[in-house]
Design goal:
about 240 residues; mainly alpha; Four Helix Bundle (Hemerythrin (Met), subunit A)
Length: about 240
């Protein structure tokens, strides 16, 4: 083979047999050709909705909450019924109202329960009812005295002297049955109301506190409510000693 041909063949073989690059060189080359990933800040959802702040007009300002209207004062109980009533009518109204609380407290009460003391050594509900009737009876007896301006006979008497007086009044009444005690209480209150209705409404100050008669009569509504509350508490199981 001629020398010139041998040189050309050798140059072709040398050109085909170039040395291979190292593994690290190939890895770096591939890494440099890959596209760089996008950062999270640059990625936006395809269908993301942009929130826009509400537009403000040039003169708009945040409005302060409107002040609450002041609540109207609650009128006293039965204000309509009391309106225009004189002192006698108001007293009669309160006597009816207070006695209704006693009747509600004793309604449906059995004789066995009514005759059981509220606590050892204290009154039973029957004795309370008898006591209420007795206080009406005593007032009926003292109409003339107090209308004349003289204080009622028990004015200024405190416990234990008043307790002894009440006990003395109860001694002859304890023989009454429960039904008899209730009838006596109702009958004496009817007599009292009838006597009051027969008295003239004037002068008005006779029916008010400060006059001997008014002081005596205005003690009854409070007295009724006091004992009605005792009876009610006893019936629901919260036994409270009865006060004389």
């Amino acid at each position: 083979m001629p020398a010139s041909r041998k040189r050309r063949t050798a140059s072709k073989v040398g050109a085909r047999r170039k040395p291979r690059a190292s593994a690290s060189t190939r890895t770096n080359a591939r890494a440099s050709t890959r596209p760089k990933p996008h950062t999270s800040a640059a990625i936006k959802p395809k269908f993301a909705l942009e929130r826009k702040a509400p537009a403000r007009t040039s003169g708009s300002r945040a409005k302060a909450p409107a002040p609450r209207a002041a609540l109207a004062p609650v009128p006293p109980a039965f204000a309509a019924q009391r309106a225009g009533a004189g002192a006698r009518e108001e007293l009669l109204f309160e006597l009816h109202r207070a006695r209704a609380s006693v009747k509600a407290a004793t309604q449906g009460l059995s004789a066995g329960t009514a005759e059981r003391p509220l606590s050892p050594g204290k009154w039973s509900i029957k004795e309370i009812v008898l006591h209420l009737s007795e206080r009406d009876r005593v007032r009926l007896e003292e109409f003339g005295r107090t209308l004349a301006g003289q204080p009622h006979s028990w004015a200024g008497i405190e416990d234990p002297r008043m307790a002894a007086t009440n006990e003395m009044h109860l001694v002859p009444l304890r023989a009454h049955t429960w039904d008899e005690a209730v009838r006596r209480m109702d009958s004496l209150r009817e007599q009292l109301l009838w006597r009051l209705s027969q008295l003239p409404a004037e002068p008005d100050d006779v029916w008010q506190r400060g006059h001997a008669f008014g002081d005596m009569m205005w003690g009854l509504p409070e007295h009724d409510r006091h004992h009605a509350e005792q009876i009610k508490l006893a019936r629901i199981g919260d036994l409270v000693p009865a006060e004389d």
